[in-house]
Amino acid sequence: MDPKTILAPLLEPLSECAPHALALGHAEALADAFEAHLEVIGIGCDRTQIGYYYAGATAVVQQETYNEARAAAEQIEASARAHLKASLLRWSVESAVGQMGVLAGLITSRARFADLVVMPAPYGSGKGPEYEIALEAALFDSHAPVMVVPEAVAAPVRPRRAVLAWNQSPEALAAIRRAMPLLAGSDLVNIAIIDPPRHGPERSDPGGALSQMLTRHGLRCEISVLSRTMPKVSDVLSRHVADFGADMLVMGAYGHSRFREAILGGATRDVLEEPPVPVFMAR
Prior knowledge:
Blueprint: E1 5-10, H1 18-34, E2 37-46, H2 58-84, E3 90-99, H3 103-111, E4 116-120, H4 129-141, E5 146-149, E6 161-165, H5 170-183, E7 188-194, H6 208-216, E8 221-226, H7 233-244, E9 248-252, H8 258-264, H9 267-273, E10 279-282
Parallel strand pairs: 1-2, 1-4, 2-3, 4-5, 6-7, 6-9, 7-8, 9-10
Antiparallel strand pairs: 5-10
Helix pairs in contact: 3-4, 7-9
């Protein structure tokens, strides 16, 4: 099913944040390609931490920080409206304010009815915790697929060549199924498998069943079985994406718990720290 509602959460004004401008531009291109409605929400983050203030100061601080967050949200909304005012797309823009503790709920309430959420990479210079919170809320609580757009990377809406990170997990299969509308019409899809288990269900034909499924949908597929020759799975994937000349990477998100990936690391977090191309993720 083609995406018909595409959500682009903005956490900074477009004029001040190139990553958000790139993500919104990609969302616009997707909305145009699929004749979808583009929903933009400008979010002002209230970072008040009540427990750190003296008694009696809480109400004053809360009102001040709320006013700042409201002003930021209105500025983000104004920048988005100015950017989209001449667009021929079907679009809507609104703003909202939320403390860090309820930001996930704010994103969830919007993303749960979206077919695709488009966001910039959550890590990097100038990125606060709200970026990661927004991404995880869309993936875990809204169960919406997310397209993560890296900085300074121009990519077509429908990839000519795509890499599918396949490890036989439910997350990987969910991401591939949700990415099918974007993969339609691609020149070549590469199923990348890193160190497949010797005694797994696909031991005699790694990726064969998935390739058959995709071929029946009209996709031209090939399979690459890769050795883990680098410390991180993400490094192997990134190198393979570059060698293959891919325009998009499709992968399942957070095979382990978010806490474990935050503390110990994991393929999802590592890829998102420096995504080589737009990354389509789902659970």
